[in-house]
Amino acid sequence: MMNYTRVMTLEEVKQLTKEELDFLYDDDANSIGMLLAHKVAVEKAYQIETFHNRKVTDVEIAELNPALELGGKAREQIRGNTIDFYINALVETRNETIEKFKTLPDEWLFQQTPFWFDQPANNYFKWFHVFEDELNHRGQIRIIKKMLVKKD
Q1: Which positions ≥6 away from 86 have C-beta within 8 Å?
Q2: Is residue 121 helix, strand or coil?
Q3: 9 and 134 in contact (C-beta within 8 Å)?
Q4: pTM above 0.85, yes or no
Q5: Strand partners, 121
Q6: What's the rounded Cα separation, in Å, for the pair 83 and 87?
Q7: Pick from 85, 93, 94, 96: which is nearest to 13 by CA?
Q8: Rounded CA Rg of the chain
Q9: Residue-wise pLDDT tens for the chain (152 aa)?
């Protein structure tokens, strides 16, 4: 499911120019490039949380930002990159995830740890959330692309 979701995301963005990747439809918007960088940051955060079974540290959050939290700093800093830059980051991060998955027993998916609001969640749910987040942002990307067409 994760691989299918990623293939469809890459298909959606593979022809975009730097200008299209950086387009902001208003002052508070996320660009497509920002959303792609966010997908990488989210996946890296979940790699830390689930593969190392610990919370992401403040230092790691600082390294993943501004892509993780998005917002004003992301609008300033995540721009001017080619689609190849984003695709390479997405592919590299996903390959790390898949390679690690190959080393884990199926039982690992069902290991529960405290999660949102200190409620228990298993690794299966956590990784479902990673690609659910990607699906939601792909929907945003499609809307932004439609705005690009109207802008021209």
Answers
A1: 13, 21, 33, 36, 37, 40
A2: strand
A3: yes
A4: yes
A5: 113
A6: 6
A7: 85
A8: 16
A9: 899 999 999 999 999 999 999 999 999 999 999 999 999 999 999 999 999 999 999 999 999 999 999 999 999 999 999 999 999 999 999 999 999 999 999 999 999 998 988 899 999 999 999 999 999 999 999 999 999 876 65
